[in-house]
Design a protein that fits this description.
alpha/beta; Rossmann fold; Alpha-Beta Plaits; TIM Barrel; 3 domains; eight-stranded mixed barrel; five-stranded parallel sheet; binds ligand C2E; binds calcium ion
Length: 566
């Protein structure tokens, strides 16, 4: 069998029982390709299976199997059907031509044969095929092999490695923060960067290795003839260094980095799917640890990846079957002894009945994008429950946690608008809780979004305030209503002076900026009294109320109004 389907020398099979015609055709195409000859249909099939021709020059009238019949058989064979079939014939009847085309032939060469004419026909088809192959097997932007060609090469190399008991490595390389560059500087700059990266990777790798682009900023490199894993470490390190060299694109300097995940045949997997999956898990691990690094696949990475995969699929079905619940925790105005709003907190009840903490699944929901539909469900439920309360005479504002992933999603504003409209909740009874991290990346974008929300009448709270590292100047630039003092400060405020001092500073600042202040995680009376003394009057925490299902909240609201006056 042809060792490499992408060998630049094309293969031609001549099938003709007339030795004289065979001789002329051989002379016509001998310099264009590697030529095989068969003088009847049966033999032609055998030769074709062996040599995998790009082009078949096929006589129509032959003893035994006719050219048409052979053509039909070639087209029906999955391994041969790609071959271009050119009929060679003395027939001039149109029905012959039609039949030939219907059987899958694509051209005719007229007998008596002329060498230059036959050569020109064949050359035209070889050129077409070369171009089609380039389009099908190479990435248009970078000119690197694409996933189709990679698959082909991996399959060949795996066969070789099995025979010679050698090892292969699959490297998955993904640029760090490429999406950020693409989004902020535009796709044309992104494209230039990808081209430069491709060039660097090609230069740094050996001719026997395949550097391919899988799409986006993901590259896969197939490394063959691997001796020891130390060698591969050196090689991968060199790739990272080459990517990290400053890049000059359209007059701007870029300092890029990448993460690489590595899997090795046969240790980590037997086929491309397994090797790719393991390299992907290793890459994910590298990304978790930071930028500019590589990781080999290992068993612990595998069990992590499995667990994540399982959690993700459980989350998907939980979303589809609507088993996510929303609990509510009341917020109190301690000075006036009344409830002053509530926070919606997602809950996931597994089949076993056990509740899973959001801390255990929200991060993965954010990574996988599932937070978008999940967050919408929570928002919808929260707004419709708040509307129910309003209809029963309880005017309570509901706080809903918004993940940074949701906030950055293009349709976020429309989604909020839509939910408010569907649930008919007055916008001022919705408070979106965002963290400082949301504001850190692109303050201008955040401001315009917050202003649009503000225009709609929705309230904005900064959650976990004091734990982010963002500049405080944003507080006066953004339309914020509430600061929620992070529970870590409240937890230790009685024993740790600096926590108490931080709370006091936040309260002073909030008062100066005319913001509402809410202390989170209040667990006992001492904390509540101290907070009140510092000037913080709104509190949320187990001391007052635990998060609870909506029905319980309704009951509790009836109770609280009675209890307030005790
Ligand atoms: P968070 O927004 O800071 O929510 C407050 C968390 O503190 C809640 O945990 C609540 O149950 C807990 N808590 C309330 N009072 C006390 C107290 O007195 N002591 C202590 N130790 N904890 C108290 P929960 O419900 O487990 O939620 C954890 C985090 O998960 C939330 O932190 C929020 O960041 C996230 N989360 C919850 N629901 C959603 C949601 O629907 N969407 C998004 N994006 N995130 C959510
Ligand atoms: Ca919150
Ligand atoms: Ca919080």
């Amino acid at each position: 069998m042809a060792e490499n389907r992408f060998d630049p020398t094309p293969v031609i099979l001549i099938v003709d029982d007339q030795t004289n015609d065979v001789r002329i055709l051989q002379e016509a195409v001998g310099e264009l390709a590697q030529v095989h000859v068969a003088d009847d249909g049966r033999m032609a099939l055998e030769v074709a299976r062996f040599c995998r021709p790009d082009v078949v020059l096929l006589d129509i009238e032959m003893p035994g199997m006719s050219g048409f019949e052979l053509c039909r058989l070639i087209k029906a064979d999955a391994k041969l059907c790609d071959a271009a079939i050119l009929f060679v014939s003395a027939h001039t009847h149109t029905e012959n031509e039609i039949q030939a085309l219907e059987q899958g032939g694509i051209d005719f060469i007229q007998k008596p044969l002329s060498i230059p004419v036959a050569r020109a026909h064949v050359r035209a088809h070889l050129n077409l095929r070369a171009e089609a192959k380039r389009l099908a097997y190479f990435d248009a932007l970078t000119g690197l092999p694409n996933h189709m060609l990679l698959r082909d090469r991996v399959e060949q190399m795996l066969q070789k490695a099995r025979r010679s008991k050698s090892r292969l490595a699959l490297l998955l390389l993904d640029l760090d923060n490429f999406k950020g560059i693409n989004d902020s500087l535009g796709h044309s700059t992104g494209d230039l960067i990808l081209k430069e990266v491709s060039q660097r990777l090609s230069t740094a790798s050996r001719g026997v290795d395949t550097v391919s682009r899988q799409g986006g900023d993901e590259f896969v490199i197939l490394v063959t003839d691997l001796q020891r894993s130390e060698n591969i470490s050196d090689y991968v390190q060199r790739l990272l260094e080459i990517i990290a060299l400053p890049m000059n694109i359209a007059g701007n300097r870029f300092d890029l980095s990448a993460c690489i995940g590595i899997s090795v045949f046969p240790d980590d997997g037997e086929d491309l799917e397994a090797l790719y999956r393991q390299a992907d898990a290793a890459m994910y691990q590298a990304k978790q640890e930071g930028r500019n690094r590589y990781r080999f696949f290992s068993q612990s990475i595998e069990s992590d990846a499995r667990a994540r995969h399982l959690l993700e699929s459980h989350m998907r079905s939980a979303l589809e079957s609507g088993v996510f619940e929303v609990f509510y925790q009341l917020r109190f105005d301690v000075r006036h002894a009344q409830s002053r709003g509530m926070e919606a907190l997602i809950r996931w009840r597994r089949d076993s009945g056990e509740l899973v903490s959001p801390a255990a699944f929200i991060p993965l929901a954010e990574e996988t994008g599932l937070i978008i539909p999940i967050g919408k469900q929570v928002l919808h439920k929260a707004c419709s429950d708040a509307k129910t309360l309003l209809d029963r005479g309880q005017r309570l504002c509901v706080g809903v946690n918004i993940s940074v992933v949701q906030f950055r999603e293009e349709s976020f504003l429309d989604m909020v608008k839509g939910v408010l409209k569907e649930t008919a909740l007055p916008p001022e009874l919705l408070e979106l809780e965002i963290t400082e991290g949301v504001l850190a990346r692109d303050i201008d974008q955040a401001r315009s979004l917050l202003e649009a929300l503000k225009q709609m009448g929705v309230r904005i709270a900064i959650d976990d305030f004091g734990t982010g590292y963002s500049s405080l100047s944003y507080l006066k630039k953004l339309p914020i209503d509430v600061l929620k003092i992070d529970q870590s400060f409240v937890r230790d405020m009685l024993t740790d002076h600096s926590d108490a001092a931080i709370i006091e500073a936040i309260v002073r600042m909030g008062q100066a900026l005319d913001l509402e202040l809410v202390a989170e995680g209040v667990e006992n009376l001492e904390q509540a009294e101290k907070l009140l003394a510092l000037g913080c009057e709104l509190m949320q925490g187990f001391y007052y109320c635990r998060p609870m299902p909506f029905e319980q909240l309704c009951a509790c609201l009836g109770l609280t109004s009675a209890r307030e006056h005790q």
